[in-house]
Write a structure and sequence with these properties.
The chain has 300 residues and is of the alpha/beta class. It is built from seven helices and twelve strands. Helix 5 (225-238) crosses helix 7 (279-293). It is globular.
Length: 300
């Protein structure tokens, strides 16, 4: 009997130990206050490298587009194609800068936003290319009078259609040209004027051809001091001549003069020919302006 009691005692003790071990192995109950929710994951879209939008249409309904790079408070505007097919190289040059800033957005200082309107006169460009949108020199149609492709589809010289000393006719190299029925009578001029009023750029540069110079702008109150600084900065960097006042022949209604009249410095950059892009020169000029306006005292 004694042996049986010992065995029984061992069995009971083993059961007690096993039960105790099982109890210890049980996880502690989790109270409601200890439940921690998973952190919410918020997916954010990356900042776009650029924006592209239609800012108006031409007489024949072609889109006029603007590209915007950067998000700084100091806005700089560059415009090509004012005289359409007659200065088609200014359009190609403008698109070179569109591509450059798409590929290298870091070139634009943090305090600057760059705006580019590559082709303000798309109807006139279509006359010499036979196509809409981007083109290359290989697309230029042979035997086309590029001089007549200077004007918009209404036969108006767009750079005589702005509100600075506007007259119904003006001059171009000794010829009389139409300036429209009123200042801003042409949709292309309206597109540029509206964009300027919306964005309020601190400086505007127009690419034209051909004179190998950078010209300052003026209206009734003369040349703005900052315009002379912009002119000299671009000209020095690009190796162009600097001309404070255009006096080759009288001009009325030019876009640069209108900008001067509303207090915005504007310059005309005249390429060396009607075929060349002067690309490296103009990269140097644009980069010099970016450096000039990246200075803290010029930030808005």
């Amino acid at each position: 009997m004694g042996g049986k009691n010992i065995v029984l005692a061992i069995i009971v003790a083993s059961i007690v130990v096993l039960a105790a071990l099982l109890l210890l192995a049980q996880p502690e109950p989790v109270t409601e206050t200890e439940l921690v929710p998973e952190p919410e994951v918020v997916l954010t879209e990356p900042e776009p490298l650029y924006t592209q939008r239609v800012i108006g249409t031409s007489v024949q309904g072609r889109d006029i587009e603007a590209y915007q790079f950067g998000t700084g408070e100091t806005d700089l505007l560059f415009v090509g194609g004012m005289h359409g097919g007659y200065e088609w190289n200014s359009v190609v040059l403008a698109y070179e800068f569109v591509d450059r800033f798409m590929e290298r957005p870091e070139l634009i200082p943090e305090n600057i936003t760059v705006h580019i309107i590559p082709n303000l006169n798309p109807d006139a460009v279509a006359l010499i290319t036979g196509k809409d949108g981007r083109f290359t020199q290989a697309d230029i149609l042979p035997n086309v009078d590029q001089t007549s492709a200077r004007f918009n589809a209404n036969g108006v010289d767009l750079n005589r259609n702005f509100d600075c000393k506007w007259q119904s006719t003006s001059s171009w190299r000794g010829k009389t040209v139409s300036a429209g029925t009123a200042a801003f009578s042409e949709p292309e001029a309206v597109a540029l004027g509206s964009y300027v009023q919306e964005q309020q750029p601190q400086m505007v540069a127009f690419w034209h051809a051909q004179a190998n110079n950078v010209y300052a702008s003026e209206c009734e109150n003369g040349v703005l001091p900052e315009t002379l600084e912009v002119m000299q900065t671009y000209a020095d960097a690009a190796g162009y001549g600097a001309v404070p006042s255009f006096d080759a022949y009288p001009i009325t209604g030019d876009a640069e003069g209108w900008l001067a009249s509303i207090g915005i410095p504007a310059v005309t950059v005249e390429l060396a020919s009607h075929e060349s892009l002067d690309l490296e020169q103009n990269i140097a000029g644009v980069d010099a302006l970016l450096s000039k306006y990246s200075a803290p005292e010029l930030a808005r």
